[in-house]
User: What shape does this take?
Amino acid sequence: MTFKTLTTEFSVCGQLTEDDLARAAAAGFTTIICNRPDGEEAGQPDASAIAAAAAQHGLGFAHIPVTTGNIADADVARMGDVLADANGPVLAYCRSGTRAAMLWALASAGSRPAADILGAASAAGYDLAGLRARLSVQRSAPKHSARCFDIVVVGGGSGGIAAAASLLKRRPSLSVAIIDPALEHFYQPGWTLVGAGVFRSEETRRPMASVIPDRATWINRAVTGFAPEANEVQLEDGSTVSYGVLIAAPGIVLDFEAIPGLSKTLGRNGVTCNYRFDTAPYTYELARRLRGGRALFTQPAMPIKCAGAPQKAMYLSCDIWREAGTLADTEVEFHLAGAALFGVADYVPALMEYVQRYGIGLNFGSTLVAVDGPRGIATFTRNDADGQTVRYEREFDMLHAVPPQRAPEFVRRSPLADASGFIEVDPATLRHARYANVFALGDAINTTNAKTAAATRKQAPIVAVNALAVLEGREPAPLYDGYGSCPLTVERGKIVLAEFGYGGKLAPTFPKWVLDGTRPTRKAWLLKAAMLPPIYWHGMLKGREWLVSPEM
Ligand code: FAD
Assistant: This one.
């Protein structure tokens, strides 16, 4: 495929194949734009396939599909945004390159004379003279800031993508920007199963470009600050983006550095953690390799995301040792900073049966404070009978360490945070406590629900409905009951499906005779292992609100 240069920063070409992307990266392009709808002709690779291949080469990707004769101002604005945000030269493609050149021409009308634009296109072999009239209209039209959107979503994780998709499902004409510096999106709930060898890690990762809703603009930058009085967010490059309504979903930060020695030994020396894409496979490797010895599992103080995940890793490892016949030779200890095995008492009896079956030693009030990987020593603190903090060491052959977690730094020091550092929202409407046009969801908010993707699945449509209400001058509705869910994988093939709302009130999706969440069941395993991943990728991230539509 020949790349045709219009300017040093912009080239076009016909349909790219996955193989062309290595050449595009080597030629110095940083961003690929597809201006072609999927399925125009037989054998055409889908934009998502090209997006995936682009990510493998470290290239950004945007899909702005148009048909000739039907290029809307919104398409031109999106093209302008992507060109403005690109880190370097951009390569855009369609069937022949003409539509890509047209969009570039229209997006450039505000900054260059029409004669220059038409000349550059002509030199590359594209006669765009038919656009002359529109170029001059576009040039003289009052300019909206390319950086102003009806809705700005900060964070393209579970909550951000689901909320944007739900908004655009309801109102496709909205201008929506999603700001996220990450090139990849992860299905984190899958990491527990990666750690037990049930999923491959690759099944939990997709290019960010492939999950951004079609009509949303992805700004591939980090947000560094919020200026809610000015309706603006600040980006790492010093620029700002303004909004009608802000939706913040930047997640929670894993503070590995808070435990001296942990970072440098993670993924080696028998030290692992399912909370990271790169180390979850090591949990399975260790569990398979260990044939007796001492295995430690730790859980920090709350709040953490998926509070059940530290013990899920433990039960599944024990199940592997049970099957291998080495469980009796393995001393398993669970060190929890808190005082209870699980925050909602109804689920504890079923979990205790597994603690006893696997012979696990429970150590409440025991906090991991240092790790010496090469020597295989973990240091903990706990309070003695006099209330004095004592340090003690445990040797280990395997350590599954979960670090403390906190709100992202740029959130903590922003006006959106409360004293805990998390975003202060009304627990029922998810609207900010002080800024009427700001909503937030997911792990970064200060509510007491379980920080889970299941919670964001419920929150996203509520935030969408309430954000639209505020855009229309109406009051948001108190729709969120604190629902969250934690599928506790007690063995390979069985799950205790904890589902509860604010105050630990049980909130089962199914009647007890269909699925009793307080007992281990195969049905709940089937739900987690076979049904929830497609529901996530094809339902939640696409704005399909199965069982969670607030209008229901
Ligand atoms: P995330 O999905 O983490 O997304 C945050 C996004 O914000 C990221 O894309 C990030 O790049 C972006 N971001 C960060 N900083 C910035 C910035 N400065 N500017 C712009 N963007 C930024 N949940 C369940 O429901 N069930 C489970 O079984 C389950 N198991 C889990 C097991 C493990 C091991 C882990 C780690 C999590 C598990 N979860 C589970 C929890 C679930 O994955 C999270 O609660 C969910 O992903 C939270 O969504 P979020 O959108 O708030 O944050």
